[in-house]
Each structure stands twice: as C-alpha cells, then as structure tokens.
Amino acid sequence: MTLTVKKQTFLNIFSPLLLLGFALNSYAVVTLSTGHVDGFEIHYDPTATAPEERFGLHIHDESTNIHGESTNIHYEPAEVILQVNQAAFDSQGDVFTNALRLGWASGNGWVLPATQSESVDVNGDPAMLFLGVASDGGGVNWAGNQFKVSLISAAATNPGDFAMYRFSSGEVFSNPINTKNGVSSSDFVAVSSNVGGHDHWNWAFSSAGLYVLDFQASGMLDGVLYLSEIETYTFNVIPEPSSGALLLIGLAGMVAARKRVVLKE
Questions:
Q1: What angle do the packed helices 244-264 and 5-27 form, to 10 degrees?
Q2: DSSP assignment of 15-38
Q3: Position 168 in a domain
Q4: pLDDT digits (tens, 9 = 90+) for 35-71
Q5: pLDDT of residue 206
Q6: Edge to edge, what strands does the sheet with 202-205 contain?
Q7: Which of 134, 164, 179, 248 minimizes the number of CB atoms within 10 Å of its CB?
Q8: Can you list the residues of the chain whose pLDDT is less than 70?
C-alpha cells in the first residue's frame, strides 16, 4: 500500500492514539476514572453453574451514568483499567514523608482516598476514583466472618510501589499491603463476609505509570478453603500532561499483552 508523505506524517503523530483506541475496542477494556467503584467485590453463590463462578472477585462500578440514569455494572478485572487521575497526586503528602508509615523514598505520591469527600473537587464534582472493598457472602457463616483479598504478585515493570493504608478514628495507622519490600503472604486486606460488607482504604502509588497487580480472594466455609481465580488488575497513574503521550503508547501495548495472557488461561 502506498502512502503519501502527508498521510505518513498524520499517522506518525496520531498512531499512539489510534493504537490505544483499537486496543481498547478490540478487547472491550473499560477505563474507570471517577466516582464510587468497588475495586474488590467478593461474592459467593452456591447455586452458580459454569461458566459462572461460585466464589469470585470482581469490580463493581456504582457510578457509571448512561443517558442520565445511574447503573450498577460488574466487570471482570481484566476488562478494566482503573485510572488514577492527576487530582490524586500528593493528596496526603505527609504519609509519604514519614518513614514510620509507608517508608517510601519519595516525598510525593498519588492517593485514591478512603474518604469520599476527599475524592471531589471544590465544586463537589468527582475528581478521582473512590475505591471500596465489598462482599456478598451468600448469607452463610464464613470463618471469622471475613474474606481476604491477597496481593499475589506485582509486575517487575511497575514504575513504583503500591500500598493500601488508612487511619482509624483514633488516628492509628494501618498498612496491610505495601510492595516496598516485595510481596509476601502478609499483604492482604480483610472485609466482612456479611451481605453488604463494605470498607474503604487509601490506595497509594509512588510514581506515575502503569501498574499490573495480581490479587486473589479467599474465605473459609465449613472447613473448606475457597479461592477465587487470580485476577489481574491494571492501574494507570496519570503523570504530568507532558508525559501523557508516552503513557498512551505504553498503555496500548500493555492492554494487548495482558489480554493475550488472559486468553491463554
């Protein structure tokens, strides 16, 4: 096929955007960037039959608005990119500079907050994601009345560290997940297994870029350990605007590569 110089120039400029669009369209990847979303939603349905899962880990979007109507949508984690907007940068800077807390080298970071009021702008409009952890235990008695969501692995290509933390009403600091020193069996968050169990944490990232993290939900019922599939989560942490084009290129390639891995499972 012959292209004129003018057409080649056009493609050179816009090919990253076109590639990203093709990747998202081909693989039905949805980007969520604002509003209340349950990043981890654990569910148990003893009546489920294949291909539905009896015990699974999903993403629940409570904020999507279609034609003026609010909708509740459940996604497989591989279908979603969770975007961390620029508004999340340095929103809790004291946490990063206190070595007794996260222990990160950087004095800055991006934080999706545990409090909804911190996720909106001065006009009260959503400025970033307000991520929750939720569950539906099917109305049965799970051991300890809780589920766990464990961090299984973090991609070597991640640009920085990831952590989940919060402060209790007495200002006690909790930090159940932190990749500062790698990933271990102690990297997990717990949530009540009761129907409607719900919790919130701060989700923190030390650098801009693409993070790929594998999580797995678990729970004990009548002496039997239930495990969800290991689910791959992708976070797109937005840098300064001048770096946006580079991030688009990396994002498009990552989406295609990640989907290929999922399809092989």
A1: 50
A2: HHHHHHHHHHHHHT-EEE-SEEEE
A3: yes
A4: 999 999 999 999 988 888 999 999 999 875 555 566 6
A5: 93
A6: 110-112, 202-205, 162-167, 173-178
A7: 248
A8: 1-28, 64-71, 91, 99-100, 240-265
Q: Which amino acid is at 54?
A: R
Q: How many domains does the chain have?
A: 1
C-alpha 89/C-alpha 257 separation (Å) is 28
Domain-located, residue 52: yes
Buried b (16+ CB within 10 A) or exposed e, 40-67: bbbbbeeeeeeeebebbbbbbbebeeee
Closest to 179 measured CA to CA, from 98, 104, 95, 84: 104
> What's the confidence (pLDDT) of residue 96?
74
Q: Residue 153's domain spans which residues?
A: 33-264
d(CA 193, CA 191): 6
Please give the model's pTM, rounded to 2 decimal places. Answer: 0.80
What gap in Å lies between CA 130 and CA 125, rounded to an integer? 12
Query: Does any domain span residue 24?
Result: no
